[in-house]
Amino acid sequence: MLIDTHCHLDAAEFDADRDYVARQALQHGVSRIVVPAVARNNFDAVIALCSQHKHCAYALGVHPMFVDSASIDDIETLKVYVQNNHPVAIGEVGLDYFVTNPKTHPENATRQTYFFTEQLKIARQFELPVILHVRHAVDDILKYLRRHEVVGGIAHAFNGSFQQAEQFIALGFKLGFGGAMTYTRALKIRELATKLPLETLVLETDAPDMPPEWVGVKGRNSPLELLRIAQVLADLRQVNVSQVLDITSTNALKVLPKLADLCTPVNALR
Fold first, then answer.
1. 3-state secondary structure of 5
2. How many CA atoms lie within 13 A of 249 on its CB side?
3. Rounded distance between C-alpha atoms, residue 265 and residue 270, angstroms
4. DSSP 7
5. CATH numbers and ranges of domains, the chain
């Protein structure tokens, strides 16, 4: 089984062929695709997409890079959506200090922190895992996770240290690896992917972003690349790709338990 734990299939880059990509991914063995929302204005889109494609499941949240255009009322709206729908997680949420450094943009950092912590409270209230965006903000993410304990989740596109990885794992999180791992120059990420316990890893594409090396940095990523990404992980670890598929899928279903309930097995859809 292949599970793409992070794919923005609702993005505009898929407007021309979204249904085709979703069907092709299923035919290529990607039996689960998690589609995280990034803002209030695409909650309905990800819900509708996943209603149409039963192997897709959605998470709901406000992404840290969208907080400046978000309304404080979006937090209450998120609660209503979570209560009335069936997201597999709260996400994509977190902090991003790459685009806006907190030292030079303190107001944005404060706003990011507000939205992140309020969404952690929602995750805790509804006992949902969270899908985390952690770019250049791992230590602060961990700090707020300790203050607002949740049931776990996924640290998407993990690129921290081994010590930070261990802290996420201790808090019940799996670590997401995808296209960045495929670049031979990505020595740190490849070392993490090689040495961390396989039982702590999940696969992702972050499509249409973070394309693997063979697609190129300007190309469009898609869930169709997931099997080849899995093969890279298997090669790095010097194991059979079937082992990577089995264990990472088990990891994904463990950390996102509603995924198993909401999605139809791939064989049933053929």
1. coil
2. 19
3. 10
4. B
5. 2-269 (3.20.20.140)
Please report the pLDDT score of residue 99 as a whole number.
Answer: 85
Task: Give CA separation, 7 vs 84, 100, 221, 232, 258, in Å.
Answer: 23, 24, 9, 19, 17
SS3 204: coil
H/E stretch holding 192 reads helix 187-195
Q: What is the pTM of this model?
A: 0.95
Q: Which of 134, 144, 127 shows the shortest CA–CA distance to 92? A: 134
First to last CA, the chain: 15
Query: b or e along 241-262 (b: 16 or more beta carbons within 10 Å of the residue's beta carbon)?
Result: beebbebbbebbbbbbebbeeb
3-class DSSP state for residue 3? strand
Q: In the chain, which residues have pLDDT < 50?
A: 263-270
> pLDDT of 91-135, one tens digit each?
999 999 998 889 899 999 999 999 999 999 999 999 999 999 999
What region, left, alpha or beta, does residue 94 occupy, with left being phi > 0 and alpha being psi -120 to 50 degrees? Answer: left
Per the structure block, which two tokens stand in for 231?
A: 């093969």
Q: How far apart are CA 70 and CA 40, in angstroms?
A: 7
For the CA atoms of 183, 187, 189, 191, the dihedral, rounded to the nearest 10 degrees, stands at: 120
- Cβ–Cβ < 8 Å for 208, 222: yes
- Amino acid type, 240: N
Nearest-Å Rg of the Cα atoms of the chain is 17
Sign of CA dihedral 230, 249, 142, 101: positive
**Dist. CA 140–CA 85, nearest whole Å:** 30
- Strand 153-156 relative to strand 2-4, pairing: unpaired
Distance, in Å, from the CA atom of 151 to the CA atom of 70, rounded to the nearest integer, reads: 26
